[in-house]
Amino acid sequence: MTAQTDTTGPVTTVFKVSGMSCGHCEGAVSGEISQLSGVSSVTAVAKTGEVTVVSAVPLDDEAVRAAVDEAGFELAGRA
User: Where would I find the HMA domain in this sequence (predicted)?
Assistant: First the structure.
């Protein structure tokens, strides 16, 4: 059994995304990330470039990167 399956309660992760400049950008990034399995909420803030994701299990960084790329932005890493 892995540590991920032993996790109880939601996991909150903050990512840095470059290129967001407005509410439309926030919506595009939030929309793509919210489609990932296990994600329960996404809050993107263009001003800070931070995207806070609450999920049932820790997310795979590459899956988040692909979602951010699909929205037209670049994942800069974890905050």
Answer: 11-76
